Amino acid sequence: MDVQSSARVNSRKRRKEALGPNGATEEDGIPSKVQRYAVGLREPAPFSDEIEVDFSKPYVRVTLEEASRGTPCERPVRVYADGIFDLFHSGHARALMQAKNLFPNTYLIVGVCSDELTHNFKGFTVMNENERYDAVQHCRYVDEVVRNAPWTLTPEFLAEHRIDFVAHDDIPYSSAGSDDVYKHIKEAGMFAPTQRTEGISTSDIITRIVRDYDVYARRNLQRGYTAKELNVSFINEKKYHLQERVDKVKKKVKDVEERSKEFVQKVEEKSIDLIQKWEEKSREFIGNFLEMFGPEGALVWFFPTGQLREFRGNSGNLCAEERITEPLSRKAHQH
After folding, report:
1. Is the dihedral of CA 174, 177, 179, 185 positive or negative?
2. pTM of the model
C-alpha cells in the first residue's frame, strides 16, 4: 500500500473514531460544543412559576467572552426573548432559533405578554394569552416560558430570572412612551441582536385574511360554521351561498369542456392513425399487384409468349404487352 492510500485509510479511521460533529476531530479545527439543555425537544417547555429556583446560590452574570467561549453544562447562558407571538409562525420560530444558537450552551427563556398589556400598548390579538402561551411552549427551541411578561424589562425582573442576555432584533422598538424599550438593555451590554425574517409577520397574515375575506367566509360557511359565528349578515350569507353554487356550475362546465377537448383530441389522433395505416396498406396492395400483373410480373413466366393478355381498356386497344408479343408470334409461324 502506498503512502497516500495509507494516509486516506488512517484519516477515515480517525474520523470514524472521533466524537466531534460529522466525524470531525479537534485536529480538524472544529470546536466541540457543550451539550445543551433540551427539555423542549421532548416535552412542552415548563412555565417559570412552576420551576423551583435555588436562590441561596449567588448568581453572577457571565460576560460575552465567557458565553461565546462556552460555559459548563451546569451553568448555561440564560438568554431571554420576549414578544406577543400572536398567530405563531415561522418568523417567530426562526427568531427563537437564533436566540437559542447565540452561544454554545444556551438556556432560552421566552416571555409572553398578557392580553391586557398587549391590548393596551399594541392592539387586539387574534389568539388569547393562553393560546399564545401554549404555542410558545411547544416550540422546540424554548426551555422556559414566562407568562404575563412585563412590557419593559426592569432590573428586578432580570435578577429574578437570572438573565444574562436579552435577544431581540436590533430595530428600535418604540412603545410605552419610549423611543426604544431595549435602550437600557443595550447600554448595559446585555443585548444580543437577532435578525427578522422578511416576508412573514402576524400583520402580513392578518392582511391576507382581510384581503381575501369573502373567500374565507365562503370556505367556513361551506365547512359548517354559521353566519352568526362568522359575523356575516343574512344578505351576505345568501350571496356567498349563491356564489358557491355558481362556482360549482362553472367547475362542472369547465370539466365538461376539458373532457370534450380530450375526446376530440383522441378522435383526431385515431383518424390520423387510421389514415396512415390506410396509406401503408394501399402502397402494399399496389406493390403486390404490380409484382403479379406488371410487365415484369410473375404471370409472364406462367404463359407462353404471345398468349399473355392484359386487361383491355375502354378503347379496346391492346396493351403494351400485347403489341410487343404479337408480332413476334407471327414471325415464328411464317418460319
Report:
1. negative
2. 0.61
* SS3 of residue 146 by DSSP: strand
Q: Kindly state the cell numbers that stand for 162.
A: 437570572
Long-range contacts of the stretch 175-178 (C-beta < 8 A, 24+): 175/121, 175/122, 175/151, 176/121, 176/151, 176/152, 178/152
Residue 79 reports pLDDT greater than 60: yes
Going through the chain in order, the beta strands assigned E by DSSP cover: 77-83, 106-112, 144-147, 165-169, 191-194
152 CB-near residues (< 8 Å, 6+ apart): 176, 178, 181
What value, to the nearest 5°, has the Cα angle with vertex 286 and ends 283 and 287?
A: 85
In terms of Cα–Cα distance, which of 157, 140, 156 is closest to 82? 157
Q: Which residue has the cell 426592569?
A: 154
Distance CA 292, CA 311 (A): 13
For the chain, percent of residues with pLDDT exceeding 90: 41
Query: Which tens digits make up the pLDDT trace of 249-276?
Result: 888 888 888 888 887 888 778 878 878 8
Average pLDDT along the chain: 79
